[in-house]
Specification:
The transhydrogenation between NADH and NADP is coupled to respiration and ATP hydrolysis and functions as a proton pump across the membrane. The chain is α/β, with parallel strands linked by helices and 373 residues long. It is built from twelve helices and 19 strands. The chain folds into two domains: 154 residues, Rossmann fold; 180 residues, Rossmann fold (3-Layer(aba) Sandwich). It binds nicotinamide-adenine-dinucleotide.
Length: 373
């Protein structure tokens, strides 16, 4: 069983899909591990560290040759996989909806592409969930990015020259990233409030010491679909939410938006008029910018200024903390493969529940129900 750790091909991807720690663990399971030279550079892991962990470090062609399992963070460019063994697995974050054409290319290569972001949200798969591990650190980094752009302090400070008032931070979308953003903004000393469409988050917001801002008076809204994900809301709810947010947002200094709906463009939460109501120097971080954005006018990869308000749209926020996010991503992949490791045959065998959920391609065809349905 040969496991190949690929150097990422996506522009700006700094993360790596295996750490020296997980390389050692795969070897302990009986696998051979090859790491493409330079794969860990962006995450501050040098080739020598992989070699010391027992991996063979070599060029791409040698890494791919005879590999049974390819590991990646983002989906590799299919052209860069020439020479891969048919039937090999590719386990990575494959962005199946956003990169649909690529899925066909993976099928044509004859590989079994496994999309880690389709991991079902069930208790036993929690340790394999790349969305959770990466979102957690994105929520943290979003607050630091906001603090870096903000020309004022977060905490209240009483100085001999006078008092600096605390920043007011509003977190929109309280999933994994949002919860971490609340906790981080609180630690930095901001006055924090937050909102979501899932009523279950209200208690979570309050338990972190933040104020919950919720639409209370629109009936028939559940807000929660399968797997704890949000569903798209009714027009009535959207209007009520917009009115509530308008009143609240005008008083905020920092806004972090994290709202996503799987398989759909991100919901629009902040309009240009709402941005105009904020005081100059305020900062909005749009963590959904690569899925279409929660904020009108946010631009992926840029910090734009509208009405004196900075709108931060960094791409690949987890990649801005590549050492930590890579370590967690690597563990997610190890936890996944080791949970299914068959000691007798020395290779992983997936069960139906998880296999069917994450498998995009097999035997030259696209097989995933979410892509075919
Ligand atoms: P997500 O990244 O899909 O979305 C971020 C947040 O935005 C969600 O809380 C969502 O409800 C919210 N949102 C969507 N539309 C909105 C709108 N119009 N206005 C305001 N907010 C909106 O969410 P996530 O981080 O993946 O977490 C979703 C849930 O799944 C959480 O309860 C989380 O704890 C749970 N979860 C479970 C597991 C597991 O059991 N394995 C793993 C990860 C997350």
């Amino acid at each position: 069983m040969k496991i190949a750790v690929l150097k990422e091909t996506a522009a700006g991807e700094t993360r790596v899909s295996a750490s020296p720690e997980t390389v050692k663990k795969f070897i302990a399971l009986g696998a051979d591990v090859s790491v493409e030279a330079g794969a860990g550079i962006g995450a501050s892991v040098d080739d020598a560290a992989y070699a010391a962990a027992g991996a063979t470090v070599c060029a791409r062609a040698a890494v791919l040759k005879d590999a049974d399992i390819l590991l990646g963070v983002s989906g590799p460019d299919p052209k860069s996989l020439a020479g891969v063994k048919p039937g090999a697995w590719l386990a990575a974050g494959l962005n199946p909806f956003g990169e649909r054409a690529r899925v066909d290319d993976y099928a044509a290569l004859g590989i079994e592409a496994l999309a880690m972001e389709f991991m079902p949200r069930i208790t036993r798969a929690q340790s394999m969930d790349i969305l959770s591990s990466q979102s957690n650190l994105s929520g943290y980094k979003a607050v630091l990015d906001a603090a870096g752009e903000y020309g004022r302090a977060f905490p209240m400070m009483m100085t001999a020259a006078g008092t600096v008032s605390a920043a007011r931070a509003f977190i929109m979308g309280v999933g994994v990233a949002g919860l971490q953003a609340i906790a981080t903004a609180r630690r930095l000393g901001a006055q924090v409030s937050a909102t979501d469409v899932r009523s279950a988050t209200k208690e979570q917001i309050e338990s972190l010491g933040a104020k919950a801002i919720f639409v209370e008076d629109v009936k028939g809204i559940e807000g929660e679909g399968s797997g704890g994900y949000a569903t798209e809301m009714s027009d009535e709810y959207k209007a009520a939410q917009a009115a509530l947010v308008s009143a609240h947002i005008a008083k905020q200094d920092i806004v972090i938006t994290t709202a996503l709906i799987p398989g759909r463009p991100a919901p629009r939460l902040i309009s240009d008029a709402q941005i105009a109501s904020m005081r100059p120097g305020s900062v909005i971080v749009d963590l959904a910018v690569e899925q279409g954005g929660n904020v009108e006018g946010s631009v992926a990869g840029e910090v734009v200024v509208k009405h004196g308000v900075k709108i931060v749209g960094h791409r690949n926020v987890p990649g801005r903390l590549a050492a930590d996010t890579s370590a967690l991503f690597s563990r997610n992949l190890f936890n996944f493969l080791s949970a299914f490791w068959d000691k007798e045959t020395g290779k992983p065998v997936l069960d139906e529940e998880i296999g069917d959920a994450i498998r995009l391609t097999k035997d030259g065809k696209v097989v995933n129900a979410r892509l075919l349905g």
